[in-house]
Amino acid sequence: MRPLMVLGCTSHAGKSLLVTALARSFARRGVDVVPFKAQNMSNNARVVAGGEIGVAQWLQARAAGIEPDVRMNPVLLKPEADTRSQVVVDGVARPDLTAMPWRDRGPYLWPAMSAALDGLRREHELVIIEGAGSPAEINLPDLVNNRVLAQADATALLVADIDRGGAFAHLYGTWALVPDTTRQRLAGFVLNRFRGDPSLLEPGPSELTVRTGMAHAGTVPMLRHELPDEEGATVRASPPGPGPHVVVVRYPYASNLDELHLLAHVAHVRFAHLPVDLAGADMVVLPGSKHVAADIAWLHASGLAAAVGEHAAAGGQVLGVCGGAMLLGHRIHDPSGVEGAAEGLGLLAVDTVMHPSKLTRPTTIGFHDLPAPWRALDGLTVTGYEIRNGRLTAVDGVDAEGALQVVADGTVLATTVHGLLEDPDVLAALFGARPNGVLDNTFDLLADAVDAHLDRGLLDRLVAS
Question: Any catalytic annotation for residue 418?
């Protein structure tokens, strides 16, 4: 089958959502389908065989019913500052490329991109490719849209977010500005996130087809769904009636926030930016951090460092995950200059030592002999993943290997393992309720939507051509 690429007029046009929906739709019809995105940018990542990839491709693989691997997202950029991102290639962080000027990286990234794409094409019946940003950024060299499209000899759909307005101008302007080789492969356009009566769209879609030759592949309505966000955090649900209140501290470089998507099904969740935001919290969560030293500085400057300590002293629970666990300790040592040394919150008798090599691995942890506020977790085993440069050690154990994965003292619990708050047994133990089938139900909801609102005959012809 011919690869299908989903391009967007802008970032956040709905490319990831549409690829997820199409992957599920084709998989339900018995097609061996696999997702691919040459380069992603997000601090929400998942550990798979070989290293880490963006959460969107992890979700798309789950929707397709296949095991995720690093080839589905061979290049991942993880922001560390407004003008700097860590570069991950084939699942592994590359300090040499991270330090390289952006415009010089292309020749070093393309071999990984093309090899991953070619390998997936050989091994699977259909590859659905997600673009990045817009293919019409004429000020920038473009590997991930136009060159990938040509490499795959794919046919393409162009997606516009009509809820933002200007969708027809976005579509026409993008079609006009892309290279000829891309324009020739733009077979159809999708109007995404539409509210209202679709009949009011005419004659817009018909006129656009006349002007560009792109078929109107369909109009997808605004959908309510429970898919975790590719970037940032997801809190879409809320349990009915009274229930526990969980406050997540949202520091500037908070990461892996997608793992909170089930939490809002069993607790009332909100985010904290100021000390007053902790009022009424039963539990405070310190999530992962892509830059621990910068985030601890922000915690102190905002007053939240003291507020978290006061919450714990008053008997409130505090849970730290990965970078959040490091923040709860006494000191962050950084002899290799990875992120910078810093003083932690001092709520747990641990230090962190930053290592130049990042630890990325699936792992399993068991809970036992926990203090009273956490005793409901005793006996549970959780499968999750680790993705960190920091190694937790006993206080002043700066030469230790950092094998600690779980540390608890009174109302404060820390773990270096992501996935705790995605485990239904853990959520049931901590909050008395269990979410079931959220992701699979969402995948089917999205597939139902594209089956109902896109031209299936057109799609089948495109991938058969």
Answer: yes
